[in-house]
Amino acid sequence: MNQRLTSQNGAPIADDQNSLTAGARGGVMLQDWQLIEKLAHFNRERIPERVVHAKGSGAYGTFTLTRDLSEFTLADHFRGVGKQTEVFLRFSTVGGESGSADAERDPRGFAVRFYTANGNHDVVGNNTPVFFLRDGIKFPDFIHTQKRNPKTNMKDPEAMWDFWSLNPEALHQVTILMSDRGIPASYRHMNGYGSHTFSFWNEQGERFWVKFHFKTQQGIKNLSNQQADKLKGIDPDHAQRDLYGAIEDGEFPKWSVNVQIMPEADAEKYHLNPFDLTKVWPHKDYPLQEIGVLELNRNPENYFNEVEQAALAPSNLVPGIGASPDKMLQARLFAYADAQRYRIGANYNQLPVNCPHASQANHYQRGGAMAGTGCPFHGRSPDSAGSVNYGPNSQNGPAQQAQYAEPPMDIAGAMARYDKTVEDDYQQAGDLFRLMNAEQQQALFDTIAATLEQASEAVQARMLSHFEQADPAYAEGIRAAIAAA
């Protein structure tokens, strides 16, 4: 038996196919509230797309801990071998709009949410261990160069390379992006990284610096420029289709979860800045330690509700896991949650995909759009938790949990806008280049030349000087490729 059709207020609808008119051929009546409700809701079916990472796919799964990390952290999901934690993972491209092709040469977002017993823990990263910038104040300018030119409304190679040529800190990530790993064949066949430096702290109040690595168990697979160009025309949603189909067929993708751990005191004496997002920590100094397996085994039931409205943010931290002095991370702690408040509303964390599944949210924030939505995993929202909306109080409201206080972090130095160009921007980019074989290097030259040759001669010259400092052969190969273009 069919369910009865109703309006949003639950009133039965007698006729959903014909507007209310003044006679069979007359005008539509303003009092046709059914028509107005349908059209008004339709006009609002789309929330603003993300400024970055607009095109995405997502799935649920489980994280199984295989190594106990109690000596490093009191985070619940990292304690007790065999502990299983529900996860949600959103993949994405970065620069394109929501209707763009999955096969673009672009970093891929890799954002993991752990629904832990002490709240949601989000690791919002990419498929690369580094990024183009080390300071968030440059991020809006960078993204403007990756989007459409405000005059032509087209992608702008001049702006892209002009910015990179004036910010050599981007060279390491540019080398990765333009390499043969720049276009993953699917979301299942790529690694993920937390990229930033985070912190662990344990019951003794000891702090450790940590980096997260998610290594695909499906093997690394990438597309050539020619394969990607063909696929963009045949199936622009190929990565979404691949992920959804694999899970539906029971071919659950898995990633080995690894961490690099650095004692807090090491940061001061380490030969590079461990909080610089343009750098990796060499594995010979801080080896990867495998701690578990992440498996995706359930597709969302509703894409809009569970993927488009998924609101992951690096500020979603839990006791035992904290931030670091990483300048890009510090900026993202504000920017990501603020973007979700703008896109979805102040109560976005009451939506099912965003509310803590394994713990109850209790706080004194009230009102705003969608207040009282309620998390289905707990049956109520903070708005329905009684009248007390302030703290402290004597009405048995939510109380502070002092046992979870983060240990103090020593910070020293005069407040100033420090020049960060003193960092070495070339060594790790050159090291990566030298790891490539001749065929990989030639593909790198050709890919860079394809867009760099569209930039002005002044921009080309600046950019080539950076490649030269990374490795003279790097610059020479690009010069030759531009000349042959």
UniProtKB/TrEMBL annotation:
It comes from the Bacteria. The active site is at residues 53, 126. It is an enzyme of class 1 (oxidoreductase). Keywords: Heme, Hydrogen peroxide, Iron, Metal-binding, Oxidoreductase, Peroxidase. Residues 6-399 form the Catalase core domain. One of its GO terms (cellular component) is cytoplasm. Its cofactor is heme. Residues 380-401 are annotated as: Disordered. InterPro entries: Catalase, Catalase_3, Catalase_AS, Catalase_clade1/3, Catalase_core, Catalase_haem_BS, Catalase_immune_responsive, Catalase_sf. It catalyses: 2 H2O2 = O2 + 2 H2O. Heme binds at residue 336. One of its GO terms (biological process) is response to hydrogen peroxide. Residues 384-401 have a biased composition (Polar residues). PROSITE patterns: CATALASE_1 (PS00437), CATALASE_2 (PS00438), CATALASE_3 (PS51402). Its EC number is 1.11.1.6. GO terms for molecular function: catalase activity; heme binding; metal ion binding. Transmembrane segments: none annotated. Belongs to the catalase family. PANTHER family: CATALASE. This is Catalase. It comes from Ferrimonas balearica (strain DSM 9799 / CCM 4581 / KCTC 23876 / PAT).
